[in-house]
Amino acid sequence: MCDNLVVLPDYTRSTRMLVAKNSDRPAYESQPLIYNQRTSYKNQDVLPLAYVEIPQVEETFLTIGSSPFWCWGYEQGMNEYGVAIGNEAIFTKDLKESAADPGKQKGILGMELVRLGLERGNNAKSALEVITKLVEEYGQWGTAVVGEEKPYNNSFLIADYKEAWVLETVDHQWAARKIQDKFHSISNEMSIRHDWDLTSEHFLEKAIVAGWIRADEKFDAAYAYTDFTNALQVSHIRVQRTKQLLAEKGGQVDVNWVKRILRDHYEDTFLEGPFFNAALPDFQTICMHSSPANFTWGITASSTIFELPKDEWHLPLIWWSPATPCTGLYLPIFMCEQEFPELLSNAGTVRVKSFDPTNSAHDQSTKDSYWWKFRDLLDELKGNENGTLYSKNKEIARKVFDPLEEKWLTLIRDIEEEAAILHKAGKRKEAISLVTSFSNECLKEAVEAIEEVRKEINSVVLS
């Protein structure tokens, strides 16, 4: 369960493309932020993935992505050219056949496809072409949960500063639509129906041959391929809520409003939010929390907003909040060459990626992991499995975190412009030094803020 959104530049206050995703994962699966520098390879190099090996390209681009501790791929990420991609698992009719076929070729994980698109595509269209060619050749596989194996297909939002695409895949087939509306949102369901711009050669034929739709009726891709034995309630309400909130802001969507969306529990709807508290959910929300009844898959493990650059001189910007964003803090990180802080990229006790979810130890908390600092804080704020202290403690956390986010957002605009002036003047190293120093100071302040929240909630308990 995840949610992706994109807002086109003309619909934003800053006239910059905004892309965002909440990645929902098992409750204690760490998902740190990983930095991979531009790298050259020999012509004969092979890239091992979870289930297949593919030829490596001569050079991969610099990327930063949010990556489950065991996985080579990304749940969401951005590259040095300002291309941003996030994916969703979608459940289609072909998957039961795939799971039952012992001879079925095991393909590429959706998270691996996200990273491959970023490493090999220097704009949205080329990243889309990278992914679709790999899907056609290798197909897809993998439930991507440690200890389990089950096939799934993927949809993707792919954007650069000029254009955005939604791509939906079914086994080796795919359809893509260029987003012409002011915004778009996807969740764990197909959204392309009659309105694709590009498809694989056999996209329609696959459904017709299987008998999922008649050859003489108008082809509705989502209806033809959706597996209706998987409840759409897990996705459709969330995607409609995302669209509702995006529409509310008219053409003035900004980073703060996207944060508001990613932190949403339906508070201002007719549902009035969860009956007890968000940490004891009674339905699935955009900001996901684990349920004692186990009807949610886990929690939002990583929440990311990408601000794509206006031009070649402005650096792409990432706002990242580990764990549930309602209890988190969006840290600003610039997309550029840098000495990336290990604190951000450290998982917990598992430091070597296995690639294969069926062959990995479970990660556990360590003090030198930024992700685990926020995950442990979430448990402290909740108090217990039923979130008895959540509502009170969340307000304490927000009183510490909100002013810090506002401070960073105010300061960063001048930092961005100064860096762009340096960059345009041929002083890229100075520009990078400026923005990375700012991000590192923000990181220091974030760690201090976590400890301040802990002291505040402990003092309330003692009193």
What does this molecule look like?
By secondary structure, the chain is an alpha+beta fold. The protein folds into two domains: 2-368, Penicillin V Acylase, Chain A (4-Layer Sandwich); 392-462. The protein has helices at residues 94-100, 110-120, 124-138, 203-210, 221-225, 233-248, 255-262, 342-345, 370-382, 390-424, 428-462, and strands at 2-7, 18-25, 33-36, 39-40, 46-48, 53-55, 59-60, 63-66, 76-79, 84-90, 153-159, 164-170, 173-178, 183-186, 198-199, 299-307, 317-322, 331-334. Helix 2 (110-120) packs across helix 3 (124-138) and helix 10 runs antiparallel to helix 11 (428-462).
Key terms for this structure?
Penicillin V Acylase, Chain A, alpha+beta, 463 residues, six-stranded antiparallel β-sheet, single chain, globular
Largest sheet: 8 strands, antiparallel
Percent range for β-strand residues = 15-25%
Structural class: alpha+beta
- Pick out the low-confidence regions: none
Taken in chain order, the helices and strands follow as EEEEEEEEEEHHHEEEEEHHHHEEEHHHH
Mean pLDDT, nearest integer? 93
Q: What share of the residues lie within helices?
A: 25-40%
Total E-strand runs: 18
Strand order of the largest sheet: 3-8-9-10-11-12-13-15
Radius of gyration: 21 Å
